[in-house]
Amino acid sequence: MLYAAAMSRIGIAVTGLGAITALGNGANALWTGLLEGRRPFGPIRAFDPGACKINLAAEVKYDLPQLGSSRTANLGVTAAREALQQAGAVPVRERIGLVVASTGYGDRTIELALAGKTQNGLRWRECLKGTLADELAEILRLGPKRQVINTACSSGAIAIALACDGLLAGDYDVALAIGCDELAAVTYSGFHSLRALDPEPCRPFDRNRRGMSIGEGAGCLVLERANDARRCGKRILGFVAGSGFACDAHHLTAPDPEGKGAALSMQNALRQAGIEANDLGFVNAHGTGTPLNDAAEIAGIERAFADHARRCLVHSAKASTGHCMGAAGTIEAVVALLALENQMVPATAGLIDCEFEGHVDCVTGHPRGIRANFGMSNSFGFGGNDATLVFERSKVPS
Amino acid sequence: MTTAIEVPEVVVAGGYLYRPQPSYFDDEAAQQQIFGELLGNDTLRRLDAFSQCALFAVEHARRAAGVTAPSTVAVAERHGVCVGTGLGAQATRVRYSKRLARSGPSATNPIDFPDSIDGAAAAHIAMRWGLRGPSLTFVDGSGTAENAIVAACRQIAFGRADRMYLVVGDIHEPWMRRSIGETVGPSDTPMTATGHTPPAGPIDAVLALVLQILDRSRRADDQTRVSGFFGVPTESEDHCLFRDLTPPESDRFDFSGALQAGGAWLEVMAPMGSTVRSCQDGPVIGLCSRVNPATHSRLAFWRRVNK
Fold first, then answer.
1. Which one of A196, A208, A397, B26 has the largest count of C-beta atoms within 10 Å of its C-beta?
2. pLDDT, tens digit (0-9, with 9 covering 90-100), for B60-112
3. Sheet with B276-279, side-by-side order of all strands
């Protein structure tokens, strides 16, 4: 059996969801916040943005449990606990795999050590992202099988795909894919120096968009082989039907303006899922709000979907959550699964004058009802890293 | 629960170890070699040290594999890159953070930020050779080499790519080197594969391998310089997976580099928990496991150290 066939025949079920974002703690808070079109952006409290001309981000206001050594770990633990609780009983810890996505873990440690704000100088182990996985595994009482991926902003989506690979290969029986990132001065000032930040809350796909807004948070999916989940009587929230990877091989920060890499990623995901573009109910776009990224993504959708592109519902969750970096892919996977479950696509908050009218069908104003079994989520990152996930609705009413 | 997935065999077509002595930042000759042979322009010269070394190692691994022709678009879509690094672009990240801490955001160089991400090396490799397939970067600390090798093989075995450029290694920024050196003394460092106690602190090394799908329709000696296999360890005489199909050739492309790389990598990662195992013929190095989902066997990328 080839991999794509294995994916469809064995099936990877999602049995737990967890999320924490500026919209609130919990997947439910994320979903209702998106449906209401909330925009929880405000001045930064986590650090002093200093000379940055823009001082705006989507910060998590929830009091996090202080279980880990960093805010990133605490965000990850919070989302994972919610997902694990929903998934119910899990096997012995040795059979649970952990795939973590994070882009900024360790930067804060370097920052504090350089500023002379640590007592013992540089605690170098805390600079290694592997330490984050060790910490999460210890707090959540997981086994030794763990991976940490950092492919910039596509990390979260790739973590989910790699967790599926591990399940199909039999590495473990249950997998946690966690994406987590805190708001960090290095990241914020980096995007600021690239002039990629919008002085107002971001407006993906809007003609007047000027850039992204950074957020923080975590998302978590508990994944199991579908047969195993059914045998255990688990409630299945949806399926990971396929995944696609590609690289623009174009520029370190700018996307390929023709969207070739994005299109290839979407086509690969559709191929693996064994479906056509017109089977999709919506695309949860990467949709950062930067002029180049949004245009390239729409070009990619048109290239991949051909005639169906114009009828394809497109929305961006980042207009409400901000861009949560390594967590974005997992948070938006939660959104895509909830959209399929509720048969509803949230509108892109702040989108008033859509630049891509006639190219795709951007959801504006109010959520749109759908009748679809499949949805797609895109995540693209620096270095031209493109990752696409296709989710399938659970056939069993929840 | 077993999952039988048919997978093609993944072969190692070529490899190269770059290991500056004593370290990249102290070894001016090694830097000159990189700049002279590969990075002969200012743009590349500004890249992070790890990216430079990764590009250098991949260039040599490609030569070792006999990959010289540029890829067509269709082929490039099936070629990807996978990087495993504990530290990534740390030198640039530290430089960026220092400027930020001392002088604020306005003093930072916009180019430094994207070049400071862990995935920068993979991005530069993909851009240089037009690789449009999967681009992955693992940052697992002690497990990063294993995870990157397994993931690279799986991209091929699961049909996402026909060829993967694998890079594993680390280049230590001096500040970090000092910090690690202070905490990892000779007394608690394990023995290396060759039986020597490594020096305190980390060692710079970058290994590049060209992994590709085995074309069974072609004769083995007609393959692109197949030098090794990922497969099941056996109790056979070889007891390892580096079955050299063309032994006389293998010396020429210096696939003993894999051996050195294993040793070097072991030394790099030894303080973080890599292992040396024993077999009947002496110690072997183990770099990865579980690469073949078809068999569920514990697979490995082995090479007898003293062969």
1. A196
2. 888 877 787 766 777 889 999 999 888 888 889 888 888 888 888 777 888 88
3. B276-279, B282-289, B300-304
Q: In sequence order, which residues have a C-beta less than 8 Å from that of residue A397 and are 6 or more positions away? A: none
What's phi and psi for A137, nearest 5 deg?
-65, -40
Which positions in chain B touch A260 (Cβ < 8 Å)? 132
Cβ-based contacts under 8 A for chains A and B:
215
Task: Characterize B114-133 residue by residue with b for buried, 16 or more Cβ atoms within 10 angstroms of its Cβ, and e for exposed.
Answer: bbbbbbbbbbbbbbebbbbb
Bridge-based pairing of strands A238-247 and A12-21 is antiparallel
* Catalytic center residues of A: 153, 286, 323
Question: Tens digit of pLDDT for each residue in B104-141?
Answer: 877 788 888 999 999 999 999 999 999 999 999 988 76
Assign B228 to helix, strand or coil: strand
| CA A360 – CA A18 distance, rounded (Å) | 30
Strand partners, B127: none
Chain A residue numbers with beta carbons less than 8 Å from the beta carbon of B105 are: 49-52, 189, 192-193
Contact A130 B120 (CB under 8 A): no
Rounded distance, CA A379 to CA B120, Å? 17
- Please tell me whether the peptide bond between B198 and the residue prior to it is cis, using omega within 30 degrees of 0: no
| Closest A-chain CA to B138 | A149
Nearest CA in chain B to A144: B143
Half-sphere exposure of B304 (CA within 13 A, CB side): 15
**Nearest CB partner across the interface for B114, out of A148, A250, A252:** A252
Q: Touching check for A315 and chain B: CB below 8 Å?
A: no
Q: What share of chain B is helix, strand, coil (3-state, %, to 5)?
A: 40, 20, 40
DSSP state for residue B225 in the 8-state scheme:
-
Phi, psi of A237 (to 5 degrees): -90, -15
Residue type (1 letter), A289: G
What are the φ/ψ torsions at residue B62 (nearest 5 degrees)? -65, -45
Beta bridge partners of A57: A42, A214
Taking each continuous run of H as one helix and of E as one strand, the counts in chain A are 12, 16
